[in-house]
From TrEMBL:
Pfam families named in the record: HTH_1, LysR_substrate
The protein's name in its UniProt record: Probable hydrogen peroxide-inducible genes activator
Family of the protein in this entry: Belongs to the LysR transcriptional regulatory family.
Natural source organism: Mycolicibacterium litorale
Domain HTH lysR-type as annotated: residue spans: 5-62
PROSITE patterns in the cross-refs: HTH_LYSR
InterPro entries in the cross-refs: LysR-type_TF_proteobact-type, LysR_HTH_N, LysR_subst-bd, WH-like_DNA-bd_sf, WH_DNA-bd_sf
């Protein structure tokens, strides 16, 4: 014989006891007054006592009903409190947030944001991988990534996490003293250039320019190619050749006077770093916590749709 449910009909008992009305209890429980009456009658048969005085005008607890209410009320409050606390867990960041970020995001996003995240959510773990290539995003089990918008799959949700920046041609002061500066993009054919290999696309990054609102893309004739932006900048500092980089990536070298931008009137702007993640992960509390921490740096921006040319 199946074991009787010890909580059977107690919900009906509590609602009637609180409202002193079978009809009000039925409304609260979303059932008919008859169903409530049957539940109370079944509970009374189970305990062997009448729990309510019933008249045409009034419903009130009997002495046995008052005893039952006083005994179970603390337990009910405890259960309701536990359920409420448990429901809050679905809104509280927990576990480990796994991020893959490109190197430029370390200085410009992670260093200022992670102290905020750790202060607000000390129980949230972090696992950060720094990588130029993000092609194994899903397979590696990352929760989110940070990289330049033009490299992000347009199906991802994206949150802007940096101010817009420009792309420029850069060279060292010594290089320009020896070779002069290009005046227009076509002059680059007379200058040694350092190319950047894109491992995901399997090509050399084309240098993009704008003239009279029209896009102009140049693949430099580069005697030297590398697959690492930091190495590319170090070679440019040493005068090996010109490079094409964002102002964000080269901010340190520019600030220290090691590299100087040229052709700025021809180079595009409006690029940004984005925190990105799959649509299905949008409501994960740990991702919301990171996005909110990032918004402290850029309070006027939020999710955006990425546009790829």
């Amino acid at each position: 014989m199946p074991r009787a449910d010890p909580f059977d009909h107690l919900a009906a008992f509590l609602e009637v006891a609180r409202s002193n009305s079978f009809r009000a209890a039925a409304d609260a429980l979303g059932v008919t007054p008859g169903a409530v009456s049957q539940a109370i009658a079944s509970l009374e048969r189970r305990v062997g006592f009448t729990l309510f005085h019933r008249t045409t005008r009034r419903v009130s607890l009997t002495e046995e009903g008052q005893f039952l209410l006083e005994q179970i009320s603390p337990a009910v409050d405890s259960i309701e409190g536990a359920l409420e606390e448990l429901s809050q867990w679905s809104h509280r960041p927990s576990g480990t947030l796994r991020l893959v970020v490109e190197p430029v995001a370390i200085t410009h996003v992670l260093e200022p944001v992670l102290p905020i995240l750790r202060r607000d959510w000390p129980g949230l773990g972090l696992d950060v991988t720094v990588a130029d290539v993000h092609s194994n995003f899903a397979a590696a089990g990352y929760d989110a990534g940070i990289r330049i918008g033009s490299y992000i799959d347009p199906d991802m949700v994206a949150v802007q996490v940096s101010q817009p920046f420009h792309w420029v041609v850069l060279g060292s002061p010594d290089y320009f003293a020896d070779h002069g500066e290009p005046s227009v993009p076509e002059d680059l054919t007379d200058h040694p250039c350092i190319g950047l290999k894109r491992e995901e696309q399997g090509d050399i990054y084309r240098w993009e320019f704008l003239r009279d609102g029209q896009s102009l893309r140049i693949t430099p004739s580069a005697d030297v190619t590398v697959n690492n932006g930091a190495l590319m900048r170090r070679l440019a500092v040493r005068g090996v050749g010109l490079i094409y980089s964002s102002m964000l990536h080269a901010s340190d070298e520019i600030d220290r006077g090691l590299l100087e931008p040229v052709l700025e009137s021809f180079t595009p702007g409006g690029e940004c770093l984005y925190l990105y993640f799959p649509e299905a992960s949008r409501n994960q509390p740990k991702l919301r916590a990171l996005a909110e921490s990032c918004s402290r740096l850029l309070p006027d921006v939020g999710e955006t749709a990425l546009s790829h040319q």
